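so im writing up the methods section and need the Glycerophosphoryl diester phosphodiesterase membrane domain-containing protein record in one place, dumping it here so i stop losing it
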Amino acid sequence: MTGVQANNSRNFILSVLSNVKTVLSKKLMFFIVVTLGVAAMSIAMDAIKSMTESRMNIILLILFIIFIIVFFSFVFLSFGAFIYASFLTLLDQKVNIGEAFSHALSYIWSFLGLGLMTGLAFFIIIAIPALVTAVLFNFAMDENLLYLFAIVLAIPMLILYLMWYVTFPVCILDNERIMDTFGRSRQLTEGYRLHIFGILVIFGLIDLLGSAIGLFPVLLTDLGLLYLSTSTIVSIGIIFNFIGEILSYLSFFLTPIVITCVYYELRLRKEPEALNNLIKNNYYVTTDKL
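--- predicted struct ---
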């Protein structure tokens, strides 16, 4: 590889969107296959849950618990695999599903630890003040004040989220210790957090559109724009809900791709020489290729 060049004159958001387009155009089948696999596992898990609730069989209950563990482990691995595959794609290096999952597997405990640390941080900063306030007001706070309080709590949570937006790519690509990923992410995102917020808004709207797919036929019927029998509405609703579920998973797994594209663009603009040195020294080449 000859390295990469930064184009700081181009709008940051447009550059990230262009990066996302590049990854999807080159890794679309990778993206779809893994996402459909997760969706199929989720549907199977729901089926096992329904059987467990109806029959109360201990074997089904154990099977359901095992399935939950396998499912969430696979989701974490997929998240890491998408980050690794997306980054190597942006570096114009080939990587297959096996290599991506193998690399993600070597960081699975770091991923789990980072997820727990992040969740704990948000709980301490957001949930504890909310619980204390609720107790002080004896759950009798005026509804308008509750909305205002929720907005006030959302502000520090959003600031933290923007600061820590690239912690997972830092973990798997910079090989940083869990505690160091937060400072490293804060350093990289400095000066670009409003741009990242704009990216969140764009993909949030896309996610909202995907979530609304399942309600589409019901909405048309309620508005009097579509006249269907109840049974037909139910049948169409099931189909649209299935499509909506698939789209929600596609949207979910779009997240690591977007995060990685943001990370790549930040490093390209802030640390082009360091990034190119790592590329030239084959730092990002998969182990089995060396």
